[in-house]
Each structure stands twice: as C-alpha cells, then as structure tokens.
Amino acid sequence: MQRSIKLSVFCGVSVDGFLARPDHKVDFLDTHEQEPHGYEEFYGSVDMVVIGRNTYQFVVSYGQWLYGKKPVVVLSSRPIDSSWIKNGVVEQMAGEPARIVAELEARGYRHAYIDGGVTIQRFLVAAELIDRMVISYVPVLIGSGMPLFGPLPHDIQLRHVATRTYRGGLVQNEYQVAGAPKLAKKQTPTPPAKKKKGVAKKR
Ligand SMILES: NC(=O)c1ccc[n+]([C@@H]2O[C@H](COP(=O)([O-])OP(=O)(O)OC[C@H]3O[C@@H](n4cnc5c(N)ncnc54)[C@H](OP(=O)(O)O)[C@@H]3O)[C@@H](O)[C@H]2O)c1
Fold first, then answer.
1. Which residue, 34, 81, 121, 161, could crosslink 174 as a Cys pair with Cβ 3.0–4.6 Å?
2. Which DSSP string corresponds to 138-157?
3. Which residue puts its alpha carbon closest to atom 38 of ligand 1?
4. Could you read off the pLDDT tens digit of each residue along the chain, which spans 203 residues?
C-alpha cells in the first residue's frame, strides 16, 4: 500500500514517557536551556496539524494560538468551540484514523503533524499510520500523567534513525515506524529532514 501524505510526531516527554501531568500541565518540559532542538524546522516542513481534543483544550487554556495559519484538524466526538481563534483555520473531524488520513490525502496535504497521546496511539494502532516520530526526552521522572504510548494489540517495530543530545540533558530520538505504508515516489523529502540527517552524522 502506498500513500502520498507523510504523518509525523514531534513531541517532548519525561523520561518515564509522559506528555503532560495528570492536570495537563507541561512545566516539566522546560529544561531552562532554550537550545533549539529542531522544532522550528519540523514545523516549517508540515502543511497541516492534527490534534486530539485534550491537546486542543490545553492550547485553548493557554490562550494563545500556537499553530499560526496552518490548517488544524481537532479530533473529537463532541463539538468544539473555535470561535475565539482569529487567524487560524480549525476544523473538527472524528472517526477511524485511516478514513481521516484518506480525507487529508484527498485534499492534497503532503505532511501532517500528529499530536496528542491518545491521537498518536490510535494512529499507530490503526495500520501503523505514523511514518516518523521525533521524541525529545526531558531528564525528569514525573510518575504519572498523560502517556505518549499505551497498551497495544501487537508489537510495533521501529527503525532507529538518529539520536541527538542537547544542553540541559535533552535526548532526542528519531524513529521510522517500520510497518508504516510506503510513501508514494512523488513525495519529496523535506529540506529539514536532510538537515537533521547531517546533524546526526556529525555526532
Ligand atoms: N509534551 C508534548 O509535546 C505534548 C504534545 C501534545 C500534547 N501534550 C499534552 O498531552 C496531553 C494529551 O492528552 P491525551 O493523551 O488525552 O490526548 P489527545 O490526543 O490530545 O486527546 C484525546 C481525545 O481526542 C479525541 N480523539 C482522538 N482521536 C480521535 C478520533 N480518531 N476520533 C474522534 N476523537 C478522537 C478524543 O476526544 P473526545 O472524547 O472528545 O472524543 C480523545 O479523548 C494534553 O494535556 C496535551 O496538552 C503534550
């Protein structure tokens, strides 16, 4: 099976694998070392964003729209209120991840940023729809919270692409999901991905 849209994860977690505390706070992600770790390049390479309701709620509570003018799909089985967003483009979708991906592909999107723990888990379990995961591990254990990964019906094999280390103790691992459907040949690799390979080679 081939598809022309690439689906990527780029997130920060505690070493024990939590995206957020039980109350959704993400204060532990701040290492007090603001060294860039590739997010800007990554974000520049995606043409749309898919987030789960809880991630959306967090952004709403933050009070600042974090996604600029890129189209954002919020996944939820319930209505969402996006009336407060002034310049962004927000749409709600729900249902099977494979159907959602087919819809995004049909609209011509080529690289989607998938974010939110439950959302990522559902995309991974549904035919291993995620292609690439960049996970930055912050050197802290928080014991409980919203996990990046959860129970699986079967193993999902990953291919290690690179490990980068940063001041402040951040360790960033990049993986390809081995079973993800092949990307069609017309998919052009993004310049940031090339840059990252270069960085990894130097290390
Ligand atoms: N550290 C980081 O880099 C990072 C990144 C992202 C998020 N976060 C934080 O981590 C936490 C993530 O929360 P979370 O794991 O609960 O995940 P989430 O993926 O943000 O939200 C989960 C919710 O999204 C909806 N959903 C997901 N897939 C769906 C589908 N296919 N169809 C319909 N609805 C779907 C469901 O909402 P309904 O119940 O409404 O249907 C589900 O309960 C948040 O606090 C967020 O702010 C941290």
1. 161
2. ES---SSSEES----SS---
3. 76
4. 678 999 999 999 999 999 999 999 999 998 777 788 999 999 999 999 999 999 999 998 888 889 999 999 999 999 998 888 877 789 999 999 999 999 999 999 999 999 999 999 999 998 678 999 999 999 999 999 999 999 999 999 999 999 999 988 999 999 999 877 666 655 444 544 444 333 333 32
Ligand 1 atom closest to Cα of residue 57: 47
Ligand 1 pocket, CB under 6 A: 11-13, 19-20, 24, 26, 29, 51-55, 58, 75-78, 94-95, 97, 115-119, 122, 146
Q: What is the pTM of this model?
A: 0.89
- What's the one-letter identity of residue 87? N
The hierarchical CATH code for the domain 2-202 is: 3.40.430.10
Q: Are 98 and 37 in contact (CB under 8 A)?
A: no
